[in-house]
Design goal:
Structural class: alpha+beta
CATH superfamily: Hypothetical protein af1432
Strand order of the largest sheet: 1-2-3-4
Shape: globular
Distance between the termini: 42 Å
CATH class: Mainly Alpha
CATH topology: Hypothetical protein af1432
Helix content: 40-55%
Number of domains: 1
Radius of gyration: 17 Å
């Protein structure tokens, strides 16, 4: 069976992710490279593992999480669909089962909060894992943090961690924010739609979603 290791080592995947990250850097976006890919893959797998989903679904979620942004070099708008189509080309050439390809394409094409609708466990876990990646390591340069709210908020986040309480059916995102760099209200100003997407995805998994910033549940 095709695994995350197979995908992460594939030359096409590497080229697509690297080009997408470079492209987004040129137009002023935060890091979307191998670090973000691995973060999303690991946390999508973690969520399903903690909730007791089958190991193969965990693996498919990890694969989808790793390659969900690799079509950005074809243009930021509609990048989920571009990424999904690129995924089909690569996964099909590797001989992956058609039903598994469909699950991965579905998760990738529905990961953006503006247009995506998670309808199964794999797509839901990818949404949460992707939106949870707010951290200062994503900021390419601190030169503009006083002027760019996205860079400022990301740079202010010193810790970002997902926790899953299977017994009480709660998925939590824990953030530590340095308020000398950015106030908590700025986080909500730009990321409220992401948190609503996480709530929708958590509901699809039969869970509630909660956000905890600097130890306070919001």
């Amino acid at each position: 069976m095709i695994t995350l290791k197979t995908i992460a080592e594939h030359p096409q995947i590497k080229a697509f992710i690297e080009k997408s990250n470079n492209y987004l850097g040129e137009i002023g976006y935060t890091e979307h490279g191998f670090r973000h890919a691995q973060f999303t893959a690991d946390n999508a797998r973690f969520i399903l593992r903690e909730l007791g989903y089958p190991s193969r679904e965990q693996e498919l979620a990890a694969i989808a999480g790793y390659i969900h942004d690799m079509g950005n070099f074809m243009g930021r708008e509609n990048h989920p669909q571009a990424s999904a189509l690129l995924a089909f080309t690569t996964l099909n050439s590797l001989g992956m089962d058609e039903k598994e390809i469909a699950l991965i394409m579905n998760a990738i094409s529905n990961h953006e909060e503006e247009t995506g609708i998670p309808t199964d466990a794999i797509s839901s876990s990818v949404v949460i894992a992707d939106k949870a990646d707010v951290h200062r390591t994503r900021v390419r340069t601190t030169k503009f943090i006083n002027f760019d709210i996205h860079d400022r908020v990301n740079y202010a986040v010193t810790e970002s961690k997902i926790k899953v309480d299977k017994r009480n059916k709660i998925i939590s995102l824990f953030l530590e924010i340095d308020q000398e760099i950015s106030q908590i209200m700025e986080y909500f100003e730009i990321f409220l739609s992401r948190m609503l997407a996480c709530r929708k995805a958590s509901s699809m998994l039969g869970c509630k979603f909660q956000l905890i910033i600097n130890g306070v549940r919001l």
